[in-house]
Amino acid sequence: MPENPLHLLMNPKSIAVVGASNNPMKMGTMQALSIIKDGYRGKFYPVHLTEKMVLGHKAYARVEDLPETPDLAILIVPTKAVIELLDRFGKIGTKKAIIITAGFKETGTTGRNMEYDLVAVAEKYGIRFVGPNCVGIINSQIHLNVTVAGMPDEPGMLGLASQSGTYITQTLAYLRERGIRFSKAISLGNEANINIVDALEFLGEDKHTKAIILYIEGLRDGRRFIEVARKITPHKPVLAQYVGGTAAGARAGLSHTGAMAGPDFLYNGIFRQAGIIRVESIEDLYAHGWALATKPPLRGNRVGVMTNSGGPATAMSYVCDLGGMEVPRFSEKLQKEIRQHIQAQAAGANPVDMTFDLDMRKLALTIPELIMKSGEVDALLLHGTMGTGFMREVYHHAADLFGNIPFAEFMKLFNPIDAEALKLPHKYKIPLLISTFFDIDDSYATAYKNSGIPVFNSPEKTARALLSMYRYKQIKERQRCKVSTLPQKNPAAAGFIRDALKNKQKALDEHTAKILLSAYGVPVTKEILAKTEKEAIAAAKKIGYPIALKACSWEIMHKSGKGLIALNVEDEIKLKIKFQNIQKAAGRKVPVLVQEMLSGNREFLAGMTRFAGFGPCVVFGLGGVFTEIYNDTTIRLAPITKCDTEEMFADIHARKLLGDFRGLPPVKKDQLAKTLRALGNIALLHPEITEIDLNPIIISGAKPIVADALIVLADKPKD
Amino acid sequence: MPENPLHLLMNPKSIAVVGASNNPMKMGTMQALSIIKDGYRGKFYPVHLTEKMVLGHKAYARVEDLPETPDLAILIVPTKAVIELLDRFGKIGTKKAIIITAGFKETGTTGRNMEYDLVAVAEKYGIRFVGPNCVGIINSQIHLNVTVAGMPDEPGMLGLASQSGTYITQTLAYLRERGIRFSKAISLGNEANINIVDALEFLGEDKHTKAIILYIEGLRDGRRFIEVARKITPHKPVLAQYVGGTAAGARAGLSHTGAMAGPDFLYNGIFRQAGIIRVESIEDLYAHGWALATKPPLRGNRVGVMTNSGGPATAMSYVCDLGGMEVPRFSEKLQKEIRQHIQAQAAGANPVDMTFDLDMRKLALTIPELIMKSGEVDALLLHGTMGTGFMREVYHHAADLFGNIPFAEFMKLFNPIDAEALKLPHKYKIPLLISTFFDIDDSYATAYKNSGIPVFNSPEKTARALLSMYRYKQIKERQRCKVSTLPQKNPAAAGFIRDALKNKQKALDEHTAKILLSAYGVPVTKEILAKTEKEAIAAAKKIGYPIALKACSWEIMHKSGKGLIALNVEDEIKLKIKFQNIQKAAGRKVPVLVQEMLSGNREFLAGMTRFAGFGPCVVFGLGGVFTEIYNDTTIRLAPITKCDTEEMFADIHARKLLGDFRGLPPVKKDQLAKTLRALGNIALLHPEITEIDLNPIIISGAKPIVADALIVLADKPKD
Questions:
Q1: Per CATH, is B294-477 categorized as 3.40.50.261?
Q2: If pLDDT is split at 50, 70 and 90, which confidence band does B519 have?
Q3: Which fold has domain B6-292?
Q4: Mean pLDDT across the stretch A388-398?
Q5: What is the distance in angstroms between the Cα of A412 and the nearest Cα belonging to chain B?
Q6: Helices marked H in A301-382 — which ranges?
Q7: pLDDT for B363-374, tens place per residue?
Q8: Would the CB atoms of B248 and A326 count as touching at under 8 Å?
Q9: pTM metric for this prediction
Q10: Where in chain A is the domain with CATH 3.30.470.20?
């Protein structure tokens, strides 16, 4: 495996910047200032045609004048100057670049062509670059900040790869206030060279990054994304926000960084497959990511809720409950211990609600320690009155009662947070999450933040962050299966496809499709193709009444509602009538498939479809008439493993139907799983197949049998 | 209608407080300080046994010593002192009280009994009170603040009724920072006397309250709640958070204010029926409530998105799209106008993404005005660089380039927000919502907040608030139907019930249930009760084969899977066998219902159930085997109107099944609606019926026919 290009790009010993000047209101200058002022200790070389000094550093008129070959070149110049500049850096041997400049692919054809040229220049010199149309990177370990905003001194633990630059610049002040700090952050821009998968891989390898968050508007290499993510998620949490799945979302994204959006359900499926936690807002991405970046990890599902106000306790319990975590009633022993510290009317059973009580030591240390020590919880959520934030409210009204001493003096009357309270999560190896409405400007909140204990400003947000921790626990513990080796390509199957394509068919007929499926072990209905009524009668005799009759021709891809199907045909007389009816409905002589009539109350569907950049994907879900009603399906990239199929079975809402349902026997899941895996393999072996649709798969007794099948073909094989 | 007790309680000319002292760290003192310091201009009388002066006001040793009868008494005293004190206030003629003191119902039996006594004392004197176990009230119009935290000077527009006191105290600083201000706020506590419905009614009548938000842990008078809410929501938005619907949520709530929780789906149903918008967090409750309290109201579903950074634009568009709003592509004309103000690589089609550009006038005024003026949008979302918030980031790095002038001087180099930008929403009658990560400390954000333009710190939160505005637009526009007068009680039906109860039955048998339903116009299967095989044969002949056979006895409430049903019985021979089988399965001689065999692919369910405090509710949803799989149901309180039934049809996910589905005719919705209304009426006319379960209702052709029915009875009539 070649080394990830971001290792050097994010850790340059020297940086040349083109586009910085002494005008502080220019983006290039702001970015140069961030490099100079935030503590980066490498060499800094401004390139400027006219200025002798830029921001106190000697400036060089041309790239060729630089005193050494810089590890990294940063370009913040007019679009038309980018390509020549990169060429010059290539000539002097620079191997890494960040191209901030916009005006490429995202603007249309001309820009797209310029981007191709840019990529060609980079390839010529073996340059790897981030951008164009990005805001740069942050590496807090070496205090390197290329963005226009300021970065905290202390390195963080959260790694971000973002398809929007805003989320590593405009949000820096927001994050600073919340105590959330990046280890590394990468604004990817148009991803002309280095893309989000490279960034994900890099963050996965980075030992300072304890959790990874991804802002995604579209993936162009979905297949590699999953491969890389799958390797990371067992040992490092990855969270993602995806916003490309609607028309407006996609359009906004397109004009933004030219990302390629795909449907929401596809992203849901691949995130699940890769073990990535999906969140629904940038706030949650940061908040949940930060909770997961902090230590210790969550070990179980039992939540303690500690508070001095009932509303937040109720809301947090409610969110935990809905998310599958438990807020267990404490043992009598523990309740008794807690009751010694709370008022008579207060609640001690979990949630613990002290009610109005200004003794912060009890709220932050004494009772939390009792709860953690008890072994009765795996996590503790704490909400309540804090330090300066609350006291400022009191002071506002009561200053004169305290002789109008300044607020700082007033605060000296109260004990600051006990250092022991900050050690609790590590002492007991139990995560502690703080919820307080005084998050921004509070001595307790600040102390918690500085100790790496997550602080959020709403009870629900805090509880939801815990749910993401719980989700990650499940991801870490989930079974992992090896991908089986791909079976041999079936020669008969290949023959069917070849013949059909030669014949200019756009699909296989149902019967041929089923023979092909059978060849790969998929159980299908017993059936015989009959060209004449006589053949049909003989076939029906062989299969046994009642039977189903279906017009069978590749041109008839969707048969229902057109008089081309007769179900429950009970005897020869009816068969003759129905056979003729089908011929009439078809408007021509059409072969008829004589099929065993399956009975079963449970119908599923399976299918295969290809998405650009993702390749073949396998779908599973509820079939039959309810298919369109509930859209109850799930999707995975092929090839799929046994573990994938088990997770797919658990994904759908109708999962109960797979079990012992209303007296019906549990579905033979291994057989269903085999069908799903076969679909993936067929797609990988036969790139000419663009789509497979098996609906319904009827559960006959306990056995899943494919009752209808469509295999769509294309001349141009897809990947 | 008697005047709402909160009118006087919230507008007292004089207040007596018992429990305030000169110790500023006591809750009572803090509350008294809020009254004194926040601008209340009425009389303030502290009652204190020993102090002569309390907080600079003459104190009175006993209630009887007060110089006048105070309009309002506030008690923050030990629990055991409350009842006697209220009695004393009653004696001097005070009619309104706020009882802050806790230790009543929420603590168990003793407390509950004390609360009964407290209520009795109040009733004796005609006193109406809020509490106990609350934090008090805020009336910003008269600058009256009874809570322990500080309140902004300027009155607000948002009315809150909360079953948690935290949300009108601990959050005051949080709200102040976000520019969200209460008109009135009421902490309800245990609701021993004045309850959340009274508060809702009061806020509905209050002309300063432009939107109402409710924090609910449980309703005890659900029926009146709906009645009151229904009257308010057509002209004033009401939003609610409900957190009692899970085990832990309910337990937390119970120990909190002794509220009564009910299942989530019940609250979903009644909120829909009442036109209340449900939100999922306290953050959203405040934020969406505030957006709805500001003006102008939303008139359509077209959203303009204006920004200088792509990520937030994409995220906001995505949320709008998912929520059913449209982010339309602008006309060529408008795009051309916009393009004159943005860089070549920027996007102007909507979202408008200026990309990096420090010209705030363009972002906040020029382009927004072009968009609003065009008539192409109904709302504008704006996200981007703001004033001091962003400039502080620049200053942090560039101060020395500006000769280290102080930040305030530095800011003078830039234009403050143009006053015209703040007038846009009113000028064009188009709501403007601001998203900025610099919400807390930014000159633009502050100016927007002060102008009553909502500002939020995440793009998704901003877009979600707009969705609540859109939801309210739909609520305002929805059709409203009058409740039909209750039909006459059917004497035969009453007779069945009387006889059954006399016979100690817990339910009606299926056949009797269906006769009863028929009497109220509900279409049921053709069926004849047969006691003997002979009778069954005759009945089948009359109905016509195939028929269904079912054991019919009130004791057999759930028949399926027990051999007590035979479907599709085709002829007399089979009938005889099945008849005997049923007798065997029953283990005794049992009458058999001979029923027409309905065929239909679509099955629904309807039912009636009673919840304490809510009375009879009508359920509608998907029936048949999928009932338990998808739980796709909706609920309304009886009596239900035609409008209710139409909304119920739209509520369920399977709504497509009601239409022209896969070649089947659209369901006769009017007949289905009639059945739902009948269920409500039956429940209201016959309180002895505790539950009705109609499942399946088979759609035969287009006609809904009840194929199975269960009517459960109780000796003790329910309301």
A1: yes
A2: very high
A3: Rossmann fold (3.40.50)
A4: 86
A5: 14
A6: 310-322, 332-339, 360-361, 367-374
A7: 999 999 999 999
A8: yes
A9: 0.94
A10: 603-713
